User: Fold these one by one.
Assistant:
Number 1:
Amino acid sequence: MSKNWMFWILLYGSFQISFASSNSSIDIAMTHCCNIGSHLDDCSDKGIDKSVVNPPNGLCRSTIKFCCELSKIPRNCGQNFHEQFDQRCRGKTNEPKACCEGCKIGKFLSALNHTCDNLPINLSPSISQMITNCCTTATPRIVRKNTNSIACKLGYKWNRNLSKCEDINECMIANNGCYEDQKCENLVGSYRCIPKNICRDGFELDYETMECREWQSMIFDTICSNGFKMNNSSGICEDINECNENGNLCDQMCVNTIGSYKCMCRRGYRIVDDKCVDIDECKVSNVCSHYCMNVKGSFKCKCPNGMRIGKNKRTCEDINECEENKGICGKKPCRNFIGGYSCDNGVDCPENFKHHPTVGGRNTTKCIRKPCETSSCKLLPKYMTFKTLKFPSNMKLPKHGIPVFNIRTKSLKFEVDFKMQIKVLPKSQNVKIASINDFSIKKQPSRALVMLMKSLQGPQTIILKVDMINKNNLKVMEAFEVKIIVENE
């Protein structure tokens, strides 16, 4: 065995008994126990017992194992490992070993009233934080295996009614052995014996200097923590309401807390460098269906011509000009479409077609094929439907797009397929021309939806043609032609 190795063993033995004293002695002992572990080949209990003179106590043994395992396989246990300790470290597997022993170190430090941060061992931030979490979340009681007894830390006793460890007032037990000229002062988890007041009336013993000082003078000399001030009448440090005393602490809102204060912002703002800065909601997400205008602390949604804002103040809804203004077209028929209306006699049916009859008149947007004998005429679709729509340029769309129009298929007795074609009439060279990829057809049990999947730039006019084809004989049963007018914003 080398001289250096013997040196660490002797140091370990000399510091072993100091674990119950001050933080500094615990730090020194932990440092040397870690050095022992870093040099071990065998990290098991057998390896430790063979390599040291005296069997180590719990904290030192865990420190040796921890540093031994960590020197061989560096680990990142994660900040939430303290929540997994009971599940991963209570069985025979005890995996991962370095993380389990590190968490045990934190629990030992808590039991010894050691601070949970500023560990004496040089560790990575994540491992150090894991040990700190295990220390701060450790309970002061220890449940012993195979018995019903529960032991608390020194200076505490078990309260069955409250099911927790509580402080023992040692001074209630015959002054806890203090001398007659001393009085017992209870502390959390401990006590101390201090001299009784031997000063005349109006004076009190200052235990720092052991001098008699005037009681009122001692109150004035008392130093309160930051965020507190002395109440001269009661002699108690009271919280300072910084928000009331200084109205210029925060940019918008000041909230007082015990011993401090907190600056907050109104809705629609966020704190940047202690200042409340407006949040541009229009850039954060698709808050509006069409146009979004940012204002200080909020936003406003706007709609294109022929549409107005809905009840939720975010979605634009079509205005039915024909219903709301009955005489808007005079004697001509009024035809409403999304974003506008037209005053005309409807569409002009192409050759070999006529307007589809309806109850009391005719359908101005649907044509039916005339009876014909030629083979070329019979290949034409039985029906043709025409629609006109208006969309604003660069309209914001939801992830799954919006429906342009729907095709009913519920009453059909055969399976159908669809063929889509597009023709674009651009009105500016700087406009991104629409393509067939901007649209899709979504089949449903009783209908098919023609969807707009990407926003369109304007101005441009798009003619979208969709053929509904009978899969059995590949004939076009009905044709749809939609004129989409994309306007500038």
Number 2:
Amino acid sequence: MTDKSPAPAPEAADTASGPEQPATAEQGPSGAQEEPRADTGGDEAPAGAAQAESGEQAVDEPARAEAAAAEGAAASAGERGVVKVSPAVYKRLTTGLGGFTLAMGACLLLVLAIFVITPRDNKEVLPTVDYASQLWALRSDAPFTVYAPEGLPARWRPTSSRLHGLDTGGKQPVAWHLGFVTPDGEYAALEESNEKADAYVPRMTNSSKPIGTMLVGGESWAKYHRNDKKANSLARPGPGGMSIVVTGTASYEELAVLAASLKPQPRQGGGPAPSASPTQGS
């Protein structure tokens, strides 16, 4: 009988060839394992791409920082109100006539600011004068007995002295003005002349009617006052038809101090000239 059992032979062949397929798939013609190499190459490619990407990020990082700094500067400039100009405009503004004008304007603004913030005293400071030479001339040539202050306290500061008519040879009245700043910071003046009293006294006192009398140094002085000019005055006649007036914005008490200091002066050559500067005193 014919046995057809060889049919399992193909299975055996298949079985024999079946286990060989994995080896064929894993090995190349040279017997080396190529599939793991392919897998390794696949793993290295993403790693290389990652390194390239990180390199690009490192390169872009300074550019991004500069861009961010530029944006921040632009934003801060916009907040400060800074106007961007082209190089040509900048050069025109900082050089030539335009730059000079801007620089001068800045200097003027600085000077104005200093002027505004600097404290100032608006009171006028009058210079101190020495009236010794004019007093000497009066003692020599005046046609009347001259009265001058002696022993005034040092805080009485002489600020003006004027002579009139002394060089006219008697054709005009002679007059002397001597002004002081008082210890209280007020003004007081000695006025004396051989002009007629009815014209001279009202002009010096700014008033034609006395408001009373005041006894100073044993002498009676007529008191005058002018409201609109804040003028107080004391006046009395002197020897030989001359007149003596003390007047100013000072109080009657300070005017009395000046009046009490007036002493008749000897003619030149009759004795030493008195000091024309106030002396220490109370």
Number 3:
Amino acid sequence: MAACTSFVKLNASSSSWIGQQSFNQRACAFPSRSRVSIVKASSSGSYTDELVKTAKSIASPGRGILAIDESNATCGKRLASIGLDNTEVNRQAYRQLLLTTPGLGDYISGAILFEETLYQSTTDGKKFVDCLRDESIVPGIKVDKGLSPLPGSNNESWCQGLDGLASRSAEYYKQGARFAKWRTVVSIPCGPSALAVKEAAWGLARYAAISQDNGLVPIVEPEILLDGDHPIERTLEVAEQVWAEVFYYLAENNVVFEGILLKPSMVTPGAEHKEKASPETIAKYTLTMLRRRVPPAVPGIMFLSGGQSEVEATLNLNAMNQSPNPWHVSFSYARALQNSVLKTWQGRPENAEAAQMALLVRAKANSLAQLGKYSAEGESEEAKKGMFVKGYTY
């Protein structure tokens, strides 16, 4: 028997799907004696309760995520900015400084690690994952394999890493990781093309299902790049389109929404747009997009900073927490937490304590922003400097 209906998307920015013919029409009516039941599969297996608990732990009041999952190449660029060579010893020293900061768990609930870091220890032999657990910080792991050109697109990219992901995720879980991150990107100046959006959404959904099946809470991150001179209204349009597609495929892959976290871009004008938006405007557009697209079952929205200055990222987060939201609205920052730390440290052991204090200052500022209680009074000029890099790669 031929299928009764095929499914067609209503429009580019809608998450609604309808059949071309009604199931009530005679041609498609099922016989009354043979009722059809649809059995929903689950991607998370026996881990569902643990996934929900982990996600709630990360999405706890006044806390957010420290992202230190830069690839070795990108970490090398950070080290080069303070005159250090890109060696494993130097990468380990820098990450030890971050992960052994006393009191970090007061403001940080999760830390995203690069694979090298997940398996490293301090110079005293203590595993980094144990350093995090002692501060009640959940260890996480970057699992994607980076971006590659997408054939047939408008000079856009797709994210690699699904091959072997299940076995790698199982090993990461054994090592102590309890959540995962997969970053793909969407470029507004390049379209975005329907192909690129669909590829991003499908890849994120497959990754999320595989992660949950292996006990890892997936962070879903389709980063809409700041590159471009478009207005904030265009960013909103694209963000709604992307997140509609993402949640459609998450549902198709039977991902448990209560066991995921999101890492969206804030809805801002393009970095080269002639007019900057205020934190209040960014909050208005961003929350509008989230309310239209994100189910309240999702426990946490952990924003990326995307090249904003340390202060900008914190002010924008604070503006979004001036009234209650259906989800925990917080941060998952890399550069916006680390920039001051690096410049304070300079690779010198005698500066380690001051650098850790700089990390606590930024972490506390964003903790206050998550609670809607942050003020930029007293912030340094250095913290106000933007960090946008055109075509930035991790």
Number 4:
Amino acid sequence: MENNIASCLTGTEPLDGGPSARPSPLPLRAGSDRRPHAARAGALARLKADLALRVAATPCGGADVDARQNHPPAKTGALFPPDQAAGASISRRDGHPAWLAPGALHDLFAGVADGPAAHGFATGHAIRIAAGRPVVWAFHDMAGRELGRPHGEGLADLGLDPDALLLVRARTVPELLGAAEEAARYNAVGVVIISAWGAAKAFDLTASRRLALVAARSGVAILAVRIAADPAPGAAWSRWTVRAAASRLLEGDAPGHPAFSVTLLRHRGGAAPATWILEWDRAQRTFREGASG
């Protein structure tokens, strides 16, 4: 059966508009400032204000947002959370290398045709890791034009409440990275998803290291979805390629769970490269290993 995950990205009523979209924060479009890792000050100020509102509205939120958010810009420090830096691998701690860990940067590479699959895989992990906390999704405009933007009903079908999502649209990759880095400094945010398009020279080793440092300091997971880009070395805790896989019919020929073929390329916790078929269980909000044949 064909994989049924594309609806989380496209639809007649996108998340940021239309009568059927569930209530969500207004999208933020970063400005035209092209300096590395810097969106316009006004756009970042709006992002901070929106994040403060979202954090305050969640059970883990509170009045002291600034005190929890004020991590200095990442320059030095450990790349990974303390337990990971001490050698506790994800595979031992969470039971499977593909159970992406919080407090770290994870790179997810996919071809154009598998872009929806990579976004679906990232969305599943965002649901699992965030556990009701706000999710910030920084979306490159080119990715939006080529693949479509997140769609409220599709995300809700996967299990992500659109009310908990703050969508950030950026014209350029430097703006995209700047907004993602800013959002990840809030340790009350659950997950930051980055959707980048193409080779993106700005998304180099320096940019990867900055994101990894911020994630380690705040404890926020950063899931960098790289569409139409070849896998490249970086500072991420894990590096993957993601493809769509065929869904298996459920009892009574009901539509199957969204399925993904994920290949581990590199894992700093020591897990060996391998490929798995994973299925997203909407009801349990978790991934399960599926049939490989």
